Every structure is written in C-alpha cells, then in structure tokens.
Amino acid sequence: MFDAVRNNKRIAQIILALLIVPFAFFGLDSYFTDGPGGNEVATVGGSKISMNEFDQALRDQQDRLRQSMGGQVDRAMLESEAMRRSVVENLVNQRLLAMHAADSGIIVTQQQLQQVIATVPAFQEDGRFSLERYEAAVRAQGMTPAMFEARLGQDLRIQQVALAVGQSAFTAQASVQRFLEAQLEERKVSELKFSPDALLAQVELPDDAAKKYYDANPERFERPARLRAEFLVFDENALLKQVSVSDDEIRKFYEANTARFGQPEERNARHILVAAAADAPAEEVAKAGEKAAALLAEVRANPERFAELAKAESQDPGSAARGGELGFFGRGAMVKPFEDAVFSLGKGLISDVVRSDFGFHIIQVVDVKPAKARPFEEVRDEIAEELKRQAASRRFAEQAEQFANLVYEQADSLQPAAEALGLEIRQTDWISRDEGSIGGFKNEKLLSALFSDEAVKNGRNVEAVEVSRGTLVSARMRDFEAAQRLPFEEVKAPTEKQLRAEEASKLAVVRGEAALAALAKGEQASGAWSEARVVRRGGPELAPAAIDAVFGAAESKLPAYAGVAMPEGGYSVFRIESVTRPELAKDDPRLQAVSQQYQRLIAERDFNAFLASLRERYEVEINEAALRTAQQP
User: Fold this and answer.
1) Whole-angstrom distance, CA of residue 422 vs CA of residue 402
2) Cα distances (angstroms) measured from residue 204 to each of 196, 215, 392, 497, 565
3) What sections of the protein cross the membrane (predicted)?
4) What span, in angstroms and rounded, lies between the C-alpha atoms of 378 and 380?
C-alpha cells in the first residue's frame, strides 16, 4: 500500500504545499486531544477542532484562491458562509480519516518517510537529496524536521486510507459498454403539447380565491426590510477628475520614451523556397541547394520573372500563389537567417541563396517602410491619460487610509470625507438585504453592515469596505422600512393572475394525461403533433424531465407513447416512432474514455459513502455558535 502512496505524483504536491503554506502546527496530539484555547469549531468523536485550526485553514484556503486567480477575487466570496462551511467540512473529513487510520493501525516507518522526502525536488541539489536544503526549507516555515515529519506521516496515513477506498472502485467492461450505448441511443419523436396559455380562457376562479390564498400564505406577501442609502465610492476613477498634468510633463514623457512611440522599419519581400528540412539527409540537402542555385541564376538574369518563377517553383504553399510575396513585416517576424538577408538588402535587390531550417530561399525586397516616430500631437492625449492614471494610483494609495479613517471617525455624516477627498455623495433607491446593490456593487459584507442594528438605529456610517480590488465604499442609511405584509389590494391582481395560471396548468395536465391514456388504448388524441425530430440522452433538444420520459418508454411496440408534466407548466405527450442503437466495437476508443470517467464517478461515490460511514462511527458535532463568531469581519 505504501508503494502506491510513494509512487503517487500527488505526494510531492502535498509536501510542497506543506512548505509553501504556513500551517498552524499543534503536534500530532492535536488530532486526538483538545486543541489549544479550549474553543472548538467542531468535535469529531471527542477530538476537538480548535478555532485556531479553523482560522489558519481558512486563511490558507483564501491565500490559495488569491494566488490561483492572480489576486482578482471578490472579497465577499472569500468571507462567504459557503467558504467557511467548506473549510470546516474539510477539517472534519481530515480528522475522520486520521482517526480511522489510527484505529486501523496504519503506520508509516521512518525509512518510508525518508524515501518520500528524498524524492522532493525542493530538497534536492544537483539531483540529490540535500540535508541542508531540507532543514533550511523546514525552518523557514517555523518548523523543526521532527514536526514536519510528524505532520507528513499523518498526511501519508490519511492518503493511504483515501487510496485504499479509491482503488477499490471497479467498473466492468460490459457495464461501461451498456452505459455508453445508452448514452448514444437515439429516438425519433414527435410532440403533442397541452399549453396552459391556451386554456386560460376556460379557467373560472371563485371571487374570493385570491383573498383566501392571501390569508393562507402570509409569508408570500411579506416585503423584506428595505432602506435607501447614501454612499461614497473611493477609487482611482474618482481621483482622476482631481488630477491634472502639464504640457511640460507630457512632453518630457514623450521625449524619454521615443522608442515606445516609434514605428519600426517594415519590409515587404517575396521569396522562392526550395524545401529541405534541417535534419534532411546530406544528399537531399545538396540536391535542393543545386536547384536553388539554378533558380537564383535564372531570376538574376531576368528579375521581372521572379513572381512567375515563385508561382511555378516555390514550395511555400502560403506564398507561392501570390508570386512569393509575404507582405510587410518587421524584425522578429521571420527566422533569423531570412530576416538578416531581408533587412540587409535595398529595395528591388535579390539576395544570394539563404539557408534556413525550412530549406533554401531566394529573396527579393519589394518595398521598404522606413522607421518613423508617431508625432507628439498624435499621442498627446494617450500620454496624458496614462500620467493621470499613474498619479491617481499614487494618490489612491496615499489617501485610502485617510478615507477609511474619516468615514469611521466622523461617523455621523459622509460629508467630511466627501469634502476632504473631493468625492460625490450618491444615493440608492430602495434596496433589500438580499437583493440590493450599492453603486453597482452587490457586496455581502457591505450590505450586512448597512442593515445591521447599529447602522439602522444610529444612522452611522458603515466602515469602508473593499468591494473590489482598488475600490472602497462607505454608506449610511437615509430611510428605513421594516419588513411588512403588503396590503391585499396591492397584490390582488398579480395573485389572481398566478392562481389562474396554476389552474390552467392543472387543466393542461388533466387533458394531457387523458390524451396519453387514449393513445395507449389505440385511440386518437386531438391536437397538432410537431414535426418528428431525433433526440439523444443528455442532449439539449428536450428538458431533462422529457428526456427521462422518452427514454423510459418501452420500445417493444412502436409507436410508443410517453407523457410528462413540463417544468414550465402544461403537459407534453411524446410519440416514439423509432429507436436507433449504436453498435460499438470492443476496441472503440470512446469506451476507454468513458471507463475512466465512470471509474472516477464510482470512486468519488464510494469515498463519499466511506466518509458518511465514518461520520456515523465517530460522532460529528459542528459548533454553529463558534462558527458564527468566526464569521465576523
């Protein structure tokens, strides 16, 4: 079993993660005893997962997401309940596997640890394990070798358990073939729709239907608490209006970056290629060289025939039809021998035979566009915009803390911050906690703070929140309305419309089921059938519920019929006119691909079932109160 772990490529990734991400290390005993601090976020079979472990794991996961996404991560996502919940669940799963490994007597010997550590590239020098590099790398993370090896040993034991479960997944070839054949099966169907819209006129509601529904479902007519707010957005764009640059600054920037605003020399050339690969046999190269030399003599004797000869003799399929012409290009666009020849020739001149990795070239320069600088007036606005953004970026970095301090220290108004930093106070319309956005930003942390008791009761500024990279927002409540039940007269019309639609949908289902029953008896059903079409399992042609109905219908007697209530309302009856199944050869490459996917699905299912059984064996309790405390910003 350990060989399977040691040979698994992911082991090296696990070890490198241990070194790259600073772990909160509490020793091996922390898996089975109370963690430091006595404040646990979860308990697994009596073993506590401390708040310190949770906080560290959350920070690690946030850092990994930032790195993987280049720092462009919505802060609200990093602090979301879903993120925190996933971290807790992962910690619980690790603890379950660790406890199972311990109870099962799974061990990792010191020799096995050394074998794994010796193969990690980060610990090697000149391809060999270096004790000095190993100890330095471990110490850089605040760990001793003993601490690191204890943690690594625990991870390897967990990995052995996971691999044992995953490797037990087995898929029979016959099952895979049946599965793929079922997925590729096609059925030709036509559809008979019973639409609620067509039946609306036949629906009659009692006069008091809407009022009864209103009284029986009070929660459906509650409008959540809402407010109107004023807010400030502090970002580089807000500061751009305050930044100006002088003509002198723009001119100096232009003169200091002449290469950037220049247009390099370009040349238009044509060529004749006699192909000869770089690794071609010497005899083939010599023969190609002789042909190129003969063609060179011919074009030099009669340069006007260059294009004609290129069309007839050149072995470059991309340019031969155009008489060998390549169009304008600058330096760096062609292989070096070709480029050197082109840029050493004058207009109209023909090169000697030039050898490249593609073969032998005869080149003629057709035209030359000399290098030139873009005039100052052409790039003036472009430079001014860039300089303004640079200045705004510097000012933002300098004033971001000032903005945050002003809205916090003078919390009764946004006016001081607006005046000090030249910002515009803007206002929202009515917004709710779940559906609101401020300045186009739907930020969970900002909205939670704005709807908090302190912000609503005291009307104080919300602390500055980074709603996206380089953008801070502060807001305060202007008007507030508590959650309330909407008056009946306000909702009467839409409620009646909804009830009428529901009744029409029910009637459509009754009519559809009656039609299906009649067809099953060999009778006719009234209505217009659609044109027949071919559908496949998992295809986009029909809704999933309709696909299930169509492919669940017996095929012993065709046409066969199936019916289903549609998700959007109404009912559809399907007539299955033909069934086509593919015949797969045993060596069909699709079988192997599906087999691998199928095995992964089974392994994932088995592993989740294994974790579920461990949860029953080791009682798991998540401290929701402590978790909520951890969620506070």
Assistant:
1) 13
2) 14, 20, 65, 11, 22
3) 12-32
4) 6
Within 459-573, residue ranges assigned H as helices are 488-520, 544-552
Encoding tokens for residue 374? 């873009």
DSSP label of 441: B
Dihedral, CA of residue 569, residue 573, residue 577 and residue 580, to nearest 10: 40
**Residue pair 233/423 in contact by the 8 Å Cβ criterion:** yes
Pure H helices in 362-443: 376-409, 415-421
Whether the ω angle into residue 559 lies within 30 degrees of 0, i.e. cis, is: yes
pTM (global) more than 0.85:
no
CB 189 within 8 A of CB 576: yes
Q: Rounded CA gap, 631 and 622, in Å?
A: 14
Cβ(224)–Cβ(484) below 8 Å:
no
Please say whether the beta carbons of 155 and 163 come within 8 A: no
| Strand-by-strand arrangement of the 620-622 sheet | 47-50, 40-44, 620-622
Q: Are 55 and 87 in contact (CB under 8 A)?
A: no
- Asked if 512 and 268 count as a contact pair (C-beta separation under 8 A), the reply is no
- Residue-wise pLDDT tens digits, 114-143: 888 888 888 888 878 888 888 888 887 777
R_g of the chain computed on alpha carbons: 37
Residues 309-360: tens digit of each pLDDT: 999 999 988 888 899 999 898 888 888 999 999 999 999 999 999 999 889 9
> Which of 18, 14, 22, 52 lies closest to 35, judged by CA?
52
Residue whose C-alpha is closest to residue 414's, from 427, 401, 395:
427
